[in-house]
Input
Amino acid sequence: MKRSVIDISDLSTEEIRELIRVAEDIIGHPADYEEACRHRKLATLFFEPSTRTRLSFEAAMYELGGNVISVAGGNTSSAAKGESIADTAKTVSCYADIIAMRHPKEGAAYVAAQNASIPVINAGDGGHCHPTQTLADLLTIWREKGTFENLTIGLCGDLKFGRTVHSLIQAMSRYAGVRFVLISPEELKLPSYVKKDVLAAKGIAYTQTTDLLGAMPDLDILYMTRVQRERFFNEEDYLRLKDSYILTPQKLANAKKDLSVMHPLPRVNEISVAVDDDPRAAYFKQVLYGKYMRMALILKLLKEAGRL
Amino acid sequence: MNVDSIQNGIVIDHIRAGSAMKLYELLHLGDLDAPVAIMKNVTSKKLGKKDIIKIDAELSVDLAVIGYVDPEATVNIIKDGELVEKRKIGMPELLTNVLFCKNPRCVTSTEQELPHVFKLTDRERRVYRCIYCETAAGK
Output
């Protein structure tokens, strides 16, 4: 049966565990998967600029032996002529076996999924959801910590518009003993509906602070985020807040020895390049793990849709 | 104060006092070419005060709208001057083209053909969210 993944909550904890198992098997035995998606086509529909997510999906499909057809940038597609998302999804369903879609509007992937006859993976819909980034984050946490339970996770930077943060909170709040430390300037605090609907509703412990250094010693994971220019209507607000938190080797001095520093990337300057050599820096591994989780997800959805 | 009994139509009763005008607007009753009576702050044994809307015309109203504005309201169907059906509505799970998403980043802001659909996500707090962007409806 055709099934799409729009939000991380579309996947149960059991399914996430299974995706991690498959991703780790791919890491261990890549040759076993080289032909897994032979003659299958992934359509990458990217109506908003993206480098890593699009390349990650495309690399994932190629490593599964499949092919990729793509639209990059709304200006070069029928969308520029005014075609609706629904019509685009129906049309692409005639050409491809699965769609990965990024769009600046929130809910766009849901509309595509409602109209496509093939599975749709949300590759980011504005500031709303980005489930495959969360899958990358989860595999990183799993491989770095060996567990999802009893972790203290610091989320730092733009917690207001950062969709990766909201999805990660949603995903991690399903595991026992998880505690969040929310580190942000006042203007970029986690929206109250996430606190109310996810954290409070599930009884998850959290603290809010503006002090990164003070929070550092308690953290098992530090998840840094970029203050995203494209989420601001007002350039002045962006310029005022963009340098709020910059992670340097000095700031890591009081951190645990087994801390993992994560970042969904791209970074601008919020993690100093000097941190890259610290063994606790996990953000480039996170990029690689993202590709493996996308491979596992493509396989799962194609199989469920009866296309493998 | 007297309002004539209706012969064929609908009486929306037990509306929380103060909510009748909202219901009048959302049901587009102003567009009707039929007698419509709004009674506000009527004494009620159960509610203390209540509003009532009487529509003297046979028409189908969107029950979901009534349930959204006041899940405790009742709908009475009148035929030939007699009460033939009494319905309690409750809170609807979905509202289609009743509320409109105000999030400028929502896909509904650019895709003109899309219906605006809101889903009940918290029954206790009566929260409805846009099915596309999950923005809560402002009441």
Remarks:
- Residues 94-130 of chain B form one domain.
- Helices of chain B lie at 20-26, 63-69.
- The mean pLDDT of chain B is 91.
